[in-house]
Amino acid sequence: MTxxxxxxxxxxxxxxxxxxxxxxxxxDGKIKVGIKQDADWRYDTLDTAKRLFxxxxxxxxxxxxxxxxxxxDHRDVIPNNFIFRQWIEVGAWAEGSWGVEFYEGLExxxxxxxxxxxRNNAFYNSQLDxxxxxxxxxxxxxxxxxxxxxxxxxxxxxxxxxYETIVVSDACSTATKEMHNNxxxxxxxxxxxxxxxxxxxxxxxx
Length: 206
Fold this sequence. Notes:
Elements: E1 13-18, H1 22-25, H2 42-58, E2 62-68, H3 82-90, E3 113-117, H4 128-135, E4 139-144, H5 147-160, E5 164-168, H6 177-187, E6 192-194, H7 196-205
Parallel strand pairs: 1-2, 1-4, 2-3, 4-5, 5-6
């Protein structure tokens, strides 16, 4: 006799929800490369992400939340480019601060996985590979802030290691619409770019 149970989740697909945190989503956050402070699409993107979460949870799709957080003294940040130097300069992403908390309405549920990392690629310096080893998805849907950095870095890695990769376009944002659209265009050859409605409709047909 075994104690194996059948999972209620559709583990063919897993959603990676990247950096839906106060630091780059809230208007008072310190980081503006994800959504500019005066961006008129801020709340459209975040409301769409909430709808994405609700739709995928209803279809029993696992959501893995990836949060960015570094030491409060930033000694673990390698300042090898503008983005990482900016974190140090403005004191962003400090573990234990309000900035690294999840944006209201986009928090993980109690049973959902949460992974912490320290760069752009969600797989780098995190437990994400271990979690994927447990869930064994064939496909990864990726959404988050920002499109041109954590989303694109993670999508390229996911594609390289063999996942069928989906980027949920309207649940992502970056500093400008032009940068957002350019990043989506750059990913079209390595990922399927879908809207939230398209992805949810596809799941409902299965």
